[in-house]
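User: For a reading group we're discussing how well predicted structures match intuition. Take long-chain-fatty-acid--CoA ligase. Before you show the prediction, I'll give you the sequence so everyone sees exactly what went in.
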Amino acid sequence: MALWLVLVLLPVLVLWLWPRGPLRLRLLLEDARFSLQAARLKRSVQGWLRQGALSLPGLFQLQLRSRPDSVFLRYRDESVTYRQLEAQSNRAARALLSCGRLPPGAPVALLLGNEPRFLAAWFSVYKLRLVAAFLNTNVRRGALTHCLQTCGARGLITSPELLDAVLEILPELQDMEITVWVMGPGQFPPGVINLHNLMEEASENPLPCETETPINLLDTAICIFTSGTTGLPKAARISHLKTLMCCAFYHLCGGCSDDVIYMSLPLYHKSGALLGVGGCIGIGASLVLKERFSASQFWSDCRRYEVTIFQYIGELCRYLTNQPQNEDECRHKVRLAAGSGLRPDVWKEFSRRFGKIKIFETYGMTEFNITFLNYTGNPGAVGRGTFLYKRFCPFELIRYDTQQGEPIRDGAGRCHRTSTGLCSLVYILPLFAVLRSLQTLVCVCAGETGLLISPVTPTSPFLGYVGSRELSEKKLLRDVFQLGDCYFNTGDLMMQDDLGYVYFRDRTGDTFRWKGENVATTEVSEIMSALDGFQEVNVYGVSIPGHEGRTGMAAVTLRPGHQLDLEQVFSHVKEFLPPYARPRFLRVMVGIT
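Assistant: Thanks. Here is the predicted 3D structure of long-chain-fatty-acid--CoA ligase, as structure tokens, for the group to look at:
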């Protein structure tokens, strides 16, 4: 029997290795190494749970006990230790409690910028067993009201700098019985509570332990707004368990407690709050928190704060490569850049110009537990999709009809995997390829683009969106491969090559991405349609050379007898749309008579 296995398996292994044997072996070893790292990390997360860290703020408490006087935040010229942030969040929690207790699980919205107050407010809401809903600081008027209604907010915490946006809709908030707190010094109008004064009078002692413990790991911990693939922003439910899992991000990237992480991404997004702040807490490191990204100041900041890790989105790296050369760009300690959306051309230029910085490209969803990690450093790929990786994060690529905007199903109503899924299986498990001809057969369509989906299971649930079962159901595909199965629809089209690398290709639905934000075309169209002169408005994304993502093009048809008033259009768009959602181009359509 042993001899028979050798005679059969040895030729198969030789055929599989040829003609790129060394590369395939190296990748196989990298895949195995990462799988072991992921397994060790899973045990670490289980250790956090055993020690009582049941959510991201709970893990902060765990780190607080072991390193209370270590610097956690660097903000401007201020250094904030773990102990100081804990004291501030305790005062904030007691100040909120003095205004009346909200029921457990009640949403409290945060309209705060990148500053220590955001974290103090977030952790204080957690201490009271409330749900923090992170609001995009760019939204105004109708969009802001919509977000507060969608998440069912009972309270809103903002800052003096952003109070004007709240005052514009204060009557509506009062009708909705939403309490407004301002976390900062100043004199505020009636109907607005000065949380800063209440915090000054509050104790910094911890609250009773029972108010700090989440009821269940799968309970909603926070809400993060996302445009998804269509419509107005939706409040995605994020569980306590997911916030904790995100704290493992820098473990996977190779970070350690000695690192200093530079973070300028908005805290109202998953990348900033969960991967940036949470990942920093996970390794017990220090975080340099910037209000916004500045390409001209970046390298001098890195030297000033002795930064070792930089968290990016693709646009930021392009901004850096477009800057004039300066002496600081090669005199720094940055060793790792982690993030998403880095195009191959920018990747190569960034690596060539700024020294030996390891780039760790990733892909993930706010609403669901699907992740890719490019741990081998292949420019352009979002990660690996091998059989070993699917044990860690299962997914499928299915055939998709871009004209109809839906997956292709056969006569029995079932979907079909793209041929690359078979190819990657043969790559990792050559034992299934008994003959070289079989491997050639299944690889003939390598590179086919498909819709990325991932199974919804008890261990990987989809909590959905707040207040809308219909919107939640639209993100699910049922009876995909067999009757009764259920998959999460990412809305992203991916391609997998014959080596197992996965590449992002495009987005489906009515959104495009610009300046690191998802833009819902339906929302922009509705706002522009409010102008009397427009009979019809159609908004879509267009590519611009030298820029990431797509920007808005508004194709408009004028009403009979109306002239195009560009000043009116400009004023309307500026007033009602955040900067990233404003169309850069206007296309006037001429009707055919």
